Amino acid sequence: MEFAHPEQPSRIDRGSPEFQTTLWSVVLAASEPNAQHFRRALDALCATYWYPLYAFVRRQGYGPHEAEDLSQEFFARLIEKQFLNGVSAEKGRFRAFLLMAMKHFLANEWNREHRQKRGGGARLVQLDSEDPETRYLHEPADPVTPEIAYDRRWATTIVQRVVDRLRAEYAAAGKSALFEELKEFLAEKQATPHQEVADRHDISVSAVAVAIHRLRQRYCTVLRDEVAQTVSRAEDIEDEIRYLIRMLGR
Q1: How many domains would you assign to the chain?
Q2: Disulfide check for 101: which of 32, 83, 120, 201 has CB 3.0–4.6 Å away?
Q3: pLDDT (tens digit, 9 = 90+) per residue, 64-102?
């Protein structure tokens, strides 16, 4: 599904509490890597955005088991802050940082004999309940470079998180069925007449139009929030949103 470009985002003041508490800025600001807030923030980022990296490693020619081992080892070292040294807030987009760090890791850091030296194979990051290779094999063939494919998967992950959050909000309000109808109106193209939606939910056509407008507004807000978690500067949010939407359209 291709989602419409959000309305012009309202700017977030770099000094506001809303921005200061975003995940990536918390990680970059942490002076002590063992601090609880640092670990929580980095764990959350890694758990969310592991899959684009796994797919990138697979695109480098590694097999499924190697790619999973490499991803686990990479994140284990990342959480120990071995790869965070020297990262500046001015360059701090988590998407770009993570790809750069993985390239460095693949080129210089990996040695097969180290697989079992990291705590007997203990996993420091719970990647996903779904087998990553199953997910990877269900993807369509994509002739673009691994870097573009990585960014596209990143954008897809962002959008899916937004949709999941909206779905949960509607479910909490007892409106799950309505959300499943309305979510198609987030896309550039939709064909279901408002009257059909109104009839199925016993509401007026004008109520459908209002519900769609509110959902789109909420989508923009949640999208900005999700992107903000992955950048270190408030002024980078809008550029990052525009870039990710371009990736979805490629």
Answers
A1: 1
A2: 83
A3: 988 888 888 888 888 776 667 666 555 578 899 889 889
